[in-house]
Design brief:
The protein is of the alpha+beta class. Helix content is 29%, strand content 32%. A 4-stranded antiparallel β-sheet has the order 3-10-5-8. Strands 4-9-6-7 form a 4-stranded antiparallel β-sheet, with no helix packed on it. The radius of gyration is 16 Å and the shape is globular.
Length: 153
C-alpha cells in the first residue's frame, strides 16, 4: 500500500517523486493502522484548530481538506489544499508545539491519526519502519519548504 506520492513537477515526464512508506508489506501497514485511529469526516468539519496542543500527525486516506490561517485582520485565508496521499500535523508531531493552522474538510473522507505514543509503539516493534517513517516525513517537509514562497528559487 502506498499513501504518499509527491511529484515535484506536474508533467508526465520522469520527475523526482517523494513517496511516503513505499513498499511496506501488508503486515507493516497493519501494525501502523493498529497504532492509529481512523477518523471519518464530512465537508465543513474542523479536524484541527490553530493553537490546540496535540502531538499527532494525520494521514489522508481519502477526501480533501484545506489548511486555514488567519491574517493580521482576523480573516481566514486558505494556505493550502491537501488531498488523499498526504499528511498534515507533522510540525506538532515533531516539536510538540501548538498547531500553527486549522484544518477544515472540503469533502467527505477519512484520516488516520497517529499520536507520538502510537509512533513509539511502531518504533519499538520495527525500528527500521520508524526510520523510514521519519525520513519520509523529512522529505515531505523539505518538499513543502522548498516549494513555498519566498523560499522558492
Amino acid at each position: 500500500m502506498q499513501y504518499f506520492d509527491y511529484q515535484t513537477d506536474k508533467s508526465d515526464s520522469d520527475s523526482e517523486k517523494i513517496t511516503f512508506l513505499e513498499g511496506l508489506s501488508p503486515g507493516e501497514w497493519s501494525k501502523i493502522i493498529r497504532n492509529a485511529r481512523s477518523i471519518p469526516f464530512k465537508p465543513g468539519d474542523l479536524l484541527l484548530k490553530a493553537g490546540e496542543a496535540d502531538d499527532a500527525l494525520y494521514i489522508m486516506v481519502s477526501g480533501e481538506v484545506e489548511v486555514i490561517g488567519t491574517n493580521g485582520f482576523g480573516f481566514e485565508n486558505r494556505i493550502a489544499q491537501i488531498g488523499e496521499g498526504s499528511v498534515f500535523g507533522e510540525l506538532a508531531f515533531f516539536d510538540n508545539q501548538p498547531r500553527s493552522a486549522s484544518i477544515r474538510a472540503i469533502s467527505e473522507g477519512e484520516v488516520l491519526r497517529i499520536s507520538r505514543q502510537g509512533f513509539e509503539q511502531i518504533a519499538a516493534w520495527n525500528p527500521k519502519l520508524a526510520q523510514q517513517f521519519l525520513l519520509d516525513l523529512g522529505r515531505i517537509l523539505a518538499f513543502r519548504f522548498r516549494n513555498e514562497l519566498p523560499y522558492k528559487i
